[in-house]
Amino acid sequence: MPPPTPPRGPTPPGGPPPRGPTPPGRGPTPPGRGPTPPSRPPTPPRGPVTARPAPKVTIPRPTPSRRSPAWLARCQRLILQPRQEWAAIAGEFTSAGPIYRRFLVPAAAIGPLAAMVGTIISGGERSSLAALGSSYTISMTDAVTRGVLEYALNLLGVYVFAMVIDVLAGILGGQRNQVQALKVAAYGSTPYWLGGAVAILPKLAPIGMLLGLYSLRLYAAGLPPVMKAPSDKTLPFTLLTGAAGAIIVLVIATLLQLFVSA
Predict the structure, then answer these.
(1) pLDDT tens column, 180-235
(2) If we measure between CA atoms, which residue out of 119, 122, 121, 111 comes closest to residue 209?
(3) Are 186 and 155 in contact (CB under 8 A)?
(4) Cα 162 versus chain centre, distance
(5) The dihedral formed by the CA atoms of 250, 253, 257 and 259, expressed in degrees to the nearest 10
(6) DSSP assignment string, the chain
């Protein structure tokens, strides 16, 4: 057996000192650097935000369409769609004043105005309806006076014509109503009013009378809904109405011829 290790004696002087206990740590960890600063400083408020006005967008205005006068549009509908237009006319609540003002005043002026202009252009030549289309010559002053007189007689003749239609309605079983009768006399004579434009050429003035014969169709379409004429009396009512209108036209033409001869 090996001999036991002899115990070590005290550390000779001058040797390393005993290490003793472990010195304390570096102390508490210093506080952190605080909250992480934002990457960009906050933008200071600029005061109340003012809304910028939206840019103005210029929208081109549509070009207004040229519409025909109301009375002329009614003439067109009476010629092209008589039954539909008469149904609308029959239900209109009106009086004699608006019928004259809105329709008859311009429509009844077509013939006299065309005849007056035609007489001036042709040097005073006119055609007489009362004398079967024979022509005669008048002065420019008489042409204007005759045009004004014819216009006044047209307006008066429509009123007389309406009275006749009203009486015929009572005889033939229709409903008597003076305003409704004026509707038939005014609107039903549309072909006659429009045909007066031919008078701007004096020699063609009789053709306007032939165009006026188309009024018979308008009377036939308008008398049942407007005057409540029975269906079996429509034909005699139409013929008597047309005859009454023709007589009134001839009376007006005769009066105008007497004016020229005076």
Answers:
(1) 999 999 999 999 999 999 888 877 777 877 888 899 999 999 999 999 999 999 99
(2) 111
(3) no
(4) 30
(5) 120
(6) -PPPPPPP-PPPTTSPPP--SPPP-S-SPPP---SPPPSSPPPPP-SSPPPPPPPPP-PPPPPPP-PPPHHHHHHHHHHH-HHHHHHHHHT----HHHHIIIIIHHHTTHHHHHHHHHHHHTTSEEEETTTTTEEEE--HHHHHHHHHHHHHHHHHHHHHHHHHHHHHHHHTT----HHHHHHHHHHTTHHHHHHGGGGGSGGGHHHHHHHHTTHHHHHHHHHHHHH---GGGHHHHHHHHHHHHHHHHHHHHHHHHHHHH-
Instruction: Give the whole-angstrom CA distance, residue 233 versus residue 115.
Output: 37
Output the DSSP codes for 120-155: HHTTSEEEETTTTTEEEE--HHHHHHHHHHHHHHHH
In the chain, the amino acid numbered 252 is: I
Among 167, 172, 205, 208, CA closest to 189? 208
228-254 per-position pLDDT tens digit: 999 999 999 999 999 999 999 999 988
What token pair was written down for 133?
A: 């289309």
pTM of the model: 0.72
Q: Which amino acid is at 240?
A: L
Q: How far apart are CA 129 and CA 122, in angstroms?
A: 18
